[in-house]
Amino acid sequence: MVAVANGNLRLNKALLDSPYSGLSSMVQTTSNWYAPSYVQIEPTTRCNNRCVFCIRAPNENFDISMDLYKSILDQLHCSRFGTKHVDLTGLGEPLLNPNIVTMIRMIKEKGMRAGFTTNFGPMNKTIARGLLEVGVDYLYVSVDGAKKETFERMRIGSNFERTMSAIRTVVELKRELGLKKPHLKMSAVLGSHNMGEILDMIRLAEDLGMDSISFNRPSGKGYEKAPLPPISFWENLPKTKIQVSRMAITLKHPQPCVALKGCYITYDGWVLSCNSLFQIMPRSKLVPYILGDLKKQSLREIWQSPNYRKIRTLLSLDMRPNYCSYCPRPYQI
Question: Strand pairing of 243-246 and 262-265?
Answer without folding.
Answer: unpaired
